[in-house]
Specification:
347 residues; 2 domains; 5-stranded mixed sheet; 43% helix
């Protein structure tokens, strides 16, 4: 960038250029001498960086670079690029006067006198933090969607494979597939209603009851504090509750007129960790000897393996009925997805 050289009009030109620079309040426009000391500081620089002009004139422009960039010589590299190539790109985090950071987009150029002699530098930058945050959210959203799709397809593939493997006929396989996939879809629906952040155990019990046509039935008793599960744990519990209720309605406590299911949960402090204790207990069902092998099929394997991914889980076939016990560290079951964990940059 050159400074105009007609001495007869230089004063008016300077005033005109100064007016333009000062009115560009969305841009920080900063001029420096060859040593990198600030020689001018427009209103846009005050707005974006926070320092007043009188506080910055004569000070090194490196003050608004991060400590890491200063240690790596980034300001000097920008000036060298401006000298050698005419401009140096500036796409990085910068510091404000209050210590917060923002993402800057701009460049540094050599400032030339009318005789083409380099007399300093001019740096122009904008605050692009909002655009960077949106771009980062979009990137993480695409990653998260791809991750969810992959997980969903893997679960559906396992449901299809195991349902076919354990079915006694094609009609039996078709019925099991439809119901299991419907249960899985219902869990997704619950999570989507809550921005894919969490679901409560009570929500998941209700959803599983709906899937087998027993919503609100007094024979399904659920009790416990308001515990919220992260997405992966919620999906696992949704399938576990569906399989347990399906088996109970076919072979267990819900297959007769007297039986009931008690689902209870609470929080305990175990091994230095807050732990969710879940108990599924079937009462007054048919004698245990009448239980069918389906208990050891896909549903039974899914129940144990799904919960053991988060902690300890075991099942037992007691004389009084089927029992599931699980002890799951709260930190594991409340783990959030990458997307929901995004924090905006400090501003």
């Amino acid at each position: 960038m050159k400074i105009a050289g007609d001495t007869g009009t230089i004063s008016s030109r300077e005033r005109f250029l100064e007016a333009i620079v000062q009115s560009a309040i969305d841009y920080a426009i900063i001029s420096m001498d060859l040593d990198g000391l600030v020689t001018s500081w427009n209103e846009g620089a005050v707005k974006i960086l926070g320092w007043e002009a009188e506080d910055m004139i004569g000070k090194p422009a490196t003050v608004f670079f991060t400590q890491e960039d200063r240690e790596n010589g980034v300001p000097q590299k920008e000036m060298t690029a401006a000298l050698n190539r005419g401009r140096g790109n500036d796409e990085r985090w910068h510091l404000r006067a209050d210590g917060t950071m923002f993402w800057a987009s701009g460049e540094m150029m050599a400032l030339r006198a009318p005789d083409d002699k380099i007399i300093g530098f001019i740096k122009i930058l904008r605050d692009r933090t909002g655009e960077r945050e949106r771009a980062e959210r979009e990137r993480l959203l695409m990653y998260e969607l791809a991750h969810r799709m992959k997980n969903t397809l893997s679960v559906v593939q396992a449901i299809v494979t195991q349902s076919l493997r354990n079915a006694v006929s094609l009609d039996d396989a078709s019925d099991k597939l439809q119901l299991r996939i419907a249960a899985y879809a219902k869990a997704h629906e619950i999570l989507l209603q809550r921005d894919w952040v969490s679901a409560t155990l009570a929500d998941l019990v209700t959803a599983a009851s709906m899937n087998i046509g027993m919503e609100g039935n007094s024979r399904i008793r659920a009790d416990g504090p308001d515990v919220r599960l992260g997405p992966q744990a919620a999906l696992s519990f949704a399938m576990v509750f569906y399989e347990l209720l399906t088996n109970a309605s076919k072979y267990g406590a819900l297959s007769n007129e007297e039986g009931c299911v008690e689902i209870s949960w609470d929080l305990e402090h175990r091994d230095g960790m807050e732990t969710l204790i879940v108990c599924w207990r079937e009462i007054n069902g048919p004698p245990i000897v009448n239980f069918e092998p389906d208990r050891k099929g896909f549903g039974s394997r899914l129940i144990v393996s799904s919960l053991q991914a988060f902690g300890e889980a075991s099942v037992s076939y007691r004389q009084e009925g089927f029992v599931l016990l699980a002890a799951l560290p709260l930190a594991r079951i409340q783990l959030q997805s990458d997307l929901s964990a995004i924090e905006p940059a400090p501003r």
